[in-house]
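User: Mind token order:
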Amino acid sequence: MRRRKYSKKVSHLSDIDVTEKALHDVAVIIVGLNARDYVRESLSTVQSSAWADINYELIYIDNGSGDGSVAMVKDEFPAVQLIANADNLGFCLAANQGARAASSRYYFFLNDDTIVHSEAIPLLVRYLDLHPEIGSAGSRLLNTDGSDQWSGRRYPTKWNAIFGRRSWLSRIFPRMPALNDYLYRDEIERGDPFIADWVSAAAMLIRQEVFWHVGGFAEDYYYWHEAVICDRIRRSGKEIVLHPQSQIVHHEGKGSGARPYPVQRWHIIDFHQGAFRSYCEHYYLSGLHPLRLMVGTALTARALALIFLTRVKAWLN
């Protein structure tokens, strides 16, 4: 699965004038691919949110869908600013593309397979207005049955290769202290806003000037891009917050269409490559650092095991 390289990369503040007066309070930016019905639902719930005195703009970037998504947005949501790419540019390039088209104080990045509770986005905007030390805030993502997706995380340690959000050991021992700590379970269940290492880009609000100061989303990442941008925001001197009262239902993994084995294999490889690169960046691991070799070996072994299991499952089906 290959993605075409985008000719215009965002680099620091080079192509955005952040001194230009914003026309809106928040731009809701959705990147979509072959998810027409989910996109319709996401756009509808954004438009029906309890905006009150908050002025918003809605931008949809389509990454080369073949399911009629573009025509649907044109026909049913004429107020939405539509960007139709001929190819799949990936999330980060398309999200940066949407941010460049926006004229708002805040950018709210939203997955295309979400249902937005009416107060979710306005709540985050008002929270950041009151807290200038916060650079970005994330919503609490829920499954359709109301259970948590644990959308705030600590930065991974070596233990999270074993006790990750979806690992089989985490399913057997779901209340392990290492897992609870990694997923901020206690903090989320308390319900008050709290400082996190990083939050999911499926529902993330970022200040315009902070977004461009760190260079936008890292366009050489697919997986782990939210961990990378949050890490860079924190290094710039701003904090990251997860606000559990801002709630959004997320049909996780449904927004990009079906995933046959070759696509699943690509996702497994990219996920582990991204994990390795972001881990090395966060912990400043040079090319000769012994921990770099250990982490790389462990992630490679994990990726190969998952590819094997995915291949077996595909054969059985």
User: Anything to note?
Assistant: Residues 10 and 215 are 6 Å apart (CA to CA). The chain has eleven helices and eleven strands. Residues 24-250 form a domain with the Spore Coat Polysaccharide Biosynthesis Protein SpsA; Chain A fold (CATH 3.90.550.10).
